[in-house]
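so my prof wants the structure for this chain in the tokens format not the other one, which i didnt know existed until like an hour ago. anyway here's the sequence
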Amino acid sequence: MVLDRWQAIKIFVRVAETGGFAEAARQLHLSPPAVTRAISALEGEIGVRLLTRTTRSVKLTEAGRGYLDDCRRILAEMADADAAAAGAHGNPTGTLIVTGSVIFGQMYVLPILLDYLDRFPAVTGRSLFVDRLVNIVEEGIDVAIRIGHLPDSGLSAIRVGTVRRVICGAPAYFEQHVMPRTPADLVHHRIIGPTGAWASPEWHFGPEGRSSVTVHPQLFCNTNEAAIAAAEQGWGLTRVLSYQVEPALAAGRLVTVLDEQMEKPLPIHVIHAEGRRAAAKVRSFVDLAVDRLRANPLFQQA
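here's what i got, hopefully its the right format
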């Protein structure tokens, strides 16, 4: 009976997360009737309906939503217990999935991941570097390095530094155009606008970001790398994050403007979902990433 309840809980969580009996059955390698029977038995034993079924969808009832949170916690604690008993908390093993934005991931996270895999050869690494907000719980991510202010959540977050937005252009561009002295001067300049997930024509200024200027890019680029390349060629001005142009700034290929009038820096956090019960592979990578990022002076300038 205990094993049946344990299996029913796992089936219930998978149905709730996938939104359907058929998909849950496929992922769990069970038949749809077996999944249906398990949910019905669970609801009968508890004495309350957990799911509302229609011909098109499966939705949680109010009682089901609360029960889902409790079931996820129970499953996580049992997984921790199993891992501890098997020694996973002592020796990092398994697959470690790490996410971050594209440029930051390639420049700063990937070297940490490579070093980590050299230290722990029993771990297999996977990187997911994308310029979108990743739900690390739903997408099965172990660790995320995230730039920006975080919403309230149950995730564990360790702040490791900051980056700032910068407006930059090439010295060759400023040989032909007067440097802007105020944000309002930007209307007289050619603007290169990235079109990524967080791109906006409204550029904010001031410590609290309360003043703004709406820019009208003549060139839109679907990647920050392309926008930076266009700026380096002297075509116009673009706005990106400081770490993205650090090599070009250090080499003199780009210079920044309006630095004193920009917004406050954005925080960088290392995030994971497992808290103090995290498996060894997660804890050891988080420790390494936190130490390495905090040691980088580029992220401790503000």
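also thought this was worth mentioning. The two ends are 58 Å apart (CA to CA).
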